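User: Hi! I have a protein structure encoded as tokens and I'd like to know what sequence might fold into it. I'm fairly new to this, so please keep things simple.
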């Protein structure tokens, strides 16, 4: 039994379906299903009641969840204690609403002094981000909306614009700019790192009752390879292009709808301002 299995089990227990859990964990659904099955075999019991499109913890699963949460909490406590003891580092925890600003800022954290250790994670929505700061789970939260609270400082740090990655021979490749309405019925190939920006764009299609054929790829390397040979369109952004290479056979065309622009805000507790001074400076100069 591995800690990784227990972490995956806890996420599955909090989700309605295995597919939903796989999205949160950024792994494929078959891989997650295999991991759960191996855990059940090792424990000798079934942990879920399975229906056609949903899973629900049974009594064994509820008890297993209590044990798993206790074990993981103790493992985290042990790891944090000895890491801090061994390195005497400033351990900073950052939560991001999108992969774009996270992957864009990560290389800049290397500019921090050696006694700083930065741990990145993702979160689902602004309400959750606010709670992460207030309960002390995170030191800094990067959100798509300012987190308004009397104890929190919130200010804009980055902005981004969506781009459409278009094969040079594609009918849309003749345009200098595009709108979201131009995309259907063409197929979109997308890396499966869902976040606020993509949700903002897909919400546009739902509001306007437009059908968007979209294929998700879980693995970044496979995504890059498929993008090289595919005729599909793909959403990218100005931030994403700092770490993503769409190859020489594609054009990156700006999307101009309001939904294709986003602002990111850095949020932190007022009483942590002095402690976070160096990392905030690095982020602002990025």
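Assistant: Happy to help. Inverse folding works backwards from shape to sequence: for each of the 286 positions I chose a residue that suits the local structure. Here it is:
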């Amino acid at each position: 039994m591995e800690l990784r299995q227990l972490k995956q089990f806890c996420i599955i227990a909090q989700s309605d379906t295995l597919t939903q859990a796989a999205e949160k964990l950024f792994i494929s659904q078959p891989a997650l299903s295999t991991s759960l099955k191996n855990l059940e075999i090792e424990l000798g019991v079934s942990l879920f009641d399975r229906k056609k499109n949903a899973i629900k913890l049974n009594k064994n699963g509820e008890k297993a969840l209590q044990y798993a949460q206790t074990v993981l909490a103790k493992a985290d406590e042990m790891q944090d204690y000895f890491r801090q003891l061994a390195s005497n580092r400033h351990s900073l925890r950052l939560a991001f609403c999108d992969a774009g600003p996270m992957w864009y800022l990560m290389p800049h954290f290397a500019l921090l002094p050696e006694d700083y250790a930065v741990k990145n994670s993702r979160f689902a929505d602004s309400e959750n981000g606010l709670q992460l700061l207030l309960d002390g789970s995170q030191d800094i939260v990067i959100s798509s909306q300012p987190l308004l609270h009397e104890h929190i400082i919130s200010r804009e740090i980055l902005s981004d614009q969506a781009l459409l990655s278009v094969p040079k021979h594609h009918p849309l490749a003749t345009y200098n700019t595009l709108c979201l309405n131009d995309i259907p019925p063409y197929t979109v190939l997308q890396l499966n790192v869902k976040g606020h920006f993509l949700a903002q764009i897909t919400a546009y299609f739902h509001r306007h009752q437009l059908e968007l054929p979209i294929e998700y790829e879980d693995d970044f390397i496979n995504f890059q390879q498929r993008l090289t040979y595919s005729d599909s369109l793909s959403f990218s952004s100005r931030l994403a292009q700092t770490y993503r290479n769409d190859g020489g056979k594609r054009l990156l065309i700006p999307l101009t709808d309001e939904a294709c622009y986003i602002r990111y805000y850095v949020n932190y507790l007022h009483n942590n301002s002095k402690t976070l001074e160096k990392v905030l400076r690095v982020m602002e100069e990025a």
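A useful reference point when you look it over: The longest helix spans residues 59-87. Feel free to ask if any position seems puzzling.
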